[in-house]
Amino acid sequence: MGRTRIILADDHDVVRRGLQALLESEPDFHIVGEAKDGLEAAELVERLRPDVLVLDVVMPGLSGLEVIRRACRTSPHTRVVVLSMYDTQAYVLEALRAGAGAYVLKRSTSEELIRAIREVVNGQFYVSYPLSRRAIEAYAKRAEDIFLDSYESLTNREREVLQLVAEGCSSSEIAGRLFISPRTVEGHRASIMRKLGLHSKTDLIRYALRRGILPLDG
């Protein structure tokens, strides 16, 4: 059996270096790519089709949650391990809904992360203690009453624009980042506000916080 091919995605270089050193010390793991933001992570997954993606849930450029959704579509066999400092139900449940196979806290031991990766490779589900029981029960309860989330009505481009607007980027900055015109950015912004029922920049930021697109601590 070949080695498990892994992509690491975290916006902190020191964290990525540490993860790389830790995981490469396991003879059955092989790091095939690294990403410093969400857009790069999504592109790498689509191009390299790894066995596992390890990523932070809060990423610049494109949220970790949206990266998970895209990974599930473009590389269905790729299993996702979220590595996050946030232990709130909102983040855990959104990650599970998006398609993550594991949610590991950054304060966990290195052994726990390695175990989580091996669990998802074997088709299992893993959530860090003490999240496990609370997260699974809440997720199961929520799954009984699925409703249409307005976020799902956004196009991929609109989700990218939403993330960048929430991060404080201007229309011209977003245009440069996404290689589109400022006028097109404004059109996407108007569509986002309409679809999500938002009326101001403040509404948009609050929505991004609730949805896990921005960190809860700002």
Q: What structural category do the secondary elements indicate?
A: alpha/beta
CATH topology of the largest domain: Rossmann fold
Helical content band: 40-55%
CATH homologous superfamily name of the largest domain?
Answer: Response regulator
Mean pLDDT: 87
- SS strand fraction: 5-15%
Taking the sheet with the most strands, its summary is:
6 strands, parallel
Count all strands and give the number: 6
CA-CA gap between termini? 44 Å
Count of structural domains: 2
Which radius of gyration do the C-alpha atoms yield?
A: 17 Å
CATH class of the largest domain: Alpha Beta
**Widest β-sheet, arrangement of strands:** 2-1-3-4-5-6
CATH-level-2 architecture of the largest domain: 3-Layer(aba) Sandwich
Would you identify the regions where 5 or more consecutive residues have pLDDT less than 50? none
